[in-house]
Amino acid sequence: MKGSGRHLAAEGLSESGELNMKMMPFLAPPLLAFAACAPSSDIAETPNAIAENNVSAEHLAKWRKDNPSWYAVVEPFQLVGEQGAGIYYVGTEGLGMFFIPTADGHIVIDGGMPDQAPMVADAIRKLGYDPKDIKILLNSHAHLDHSGGLADLKAMSGAQMTASEGDRSALEGGFYLGSEDEDFLNAPPVKVDRIITDGETVSHGGVTLTAHITPGHTRGCTSWSLDVEQGGKIYDVLVFCSATVAANRLVNPPQYEGIVDDYRSTFAKTRDWTPDVFLANHPGFFGMAKRREKQKAGDALAFVDDQAFGKFITTAEGWFQDSLRKQTAAEKP
Ligand SMILES: [Zn+2]
Question: From the CA of 245, how far away is ligand 1's center (Å)?
């Protein structure tokens, strides 16, 4: 995979699209500590109290200000498949959300930020579908920039929330695993209705998705694959969970027990994957903007590239090795 780092850089790929410590606006949120020593009857009256949905408006405003691409509207469009089937993009410039229509109601992967369910719903309506007809909600991983909108999408549709056991506690608790006290990382809690395991499938309306647990970025990080037909050919599509380090602590104490081994197992497991279509929850990972331009210019298979994932995962593994070296060195006296 020589030259892959340069190639990806040329496509605008960097870790900077992801949630990382540099972006985190509130380094020492005192609210929980304060709440813990206040009499319980006062908690509801705490100034700037975390709203009922577990997320403060002030924190959201800061996330929005610091990450404008996450909120930049993209006209929804079909990534691959025939009209009315396959997979559509309903995310923003910086956050990938995906829509899979079926005659029996629809499937959505990821909900974006805690205030983004209305944006996802709008995108679905623009495609000619009703967000109330979402039947299955899937999640790549339990971080607020991908799980935040799920509770609202579930409330508006009554869809079944399906996720991995590893991410269940964070989804249902509305926290970032291992950073439970950092309330600026909170998401609205969402109840998981069905737990899936590695290799298990979710079938609905004639569409089958396979779950691949690719842990590290979160404990239950889940990549999803499905076959999509276009022009008489079948393409295997991967919506990859992520394998970047981003905000995670790898050492002393690790974000969660076993995180380093999990990353290594994910790189070993995915290194040889060659999906025809590589998609991810940060569109910079798969060079979406450039591919979309090609598609608009007439290339109906602009998102088909079975080399794209290999280049990405090789680069991500390099980032991981760097981060591990740096974080380990920083711990030495
Ligand atoms: Zn994440």
Answer: 9
Give the integer Cα–Cα distance in Å for 26 and 24.
Answer: 6
Residues 159 and 136 sit within 8 Å (Cβ to Cβ): yes
What strand order describes the sheet that includes 222-230? 201-204, 207-213, 222-230, 233-240, 277-280
Residue 175 Cα to ligand 1 middle (Å): 12
Picking from 205, 165, 172, the residue whose alpha carbon sits closest to that of residue 186 is 172
Report the separation in Å between the CA atom of 255 and the middle of ligand 1, taken as the mean of its atom positions: 12
Show the tokens assigned to 183: 């309330």
User: What pTM was computed for the model?
Assistant: 0.88
Domain ranges (residues) in the chain = 4-23+76-331
Ligand 1 centroid to 263 CA: how many Å?
13
Each residue's pLDDT tens digit, 79-114: 999 999 999 999 999 999 999 999 999 999 999 999
DSSP 232-296: TEEEEEEEE-----TT---SSS-SSTTHHHHHHHHHHHHTT---SEEEESSGGGGTHHHHHHHHH
Question: How far, in Å, is the centroid of ligand 1 from the Cα of 41?
Answer: 35
**Sign of the four-CA dihedral 157, 170, 181, 251:** negative
Q: How far is the centre of ligand 1, averaged over its atoms, from the C-alpha of 233 (Å)?
A: 33
Environment class of 50 (CB within 10 Å of its CB; exposed 0-12, middle 13-18, buried 19+)? buried
CATH of 4-23+76-331, one of 3.40.50.2000, 3.60.15.10, 3.40.50.1240, 3.90.1150.10: 3.60.15.10
Per-residue tokens: 121 = 């719903």
Count Cβ atoms below 10 Å from residue 120 Cβ, excluding itself: 28
- The alpha carbon of 249 and the centre of ligand 1 are apart by a number of angstroms equal to 13
User: Which tens digits make up the pLDDT trace of 247-265?
Assistant: 999 999 999 999 999 999 9
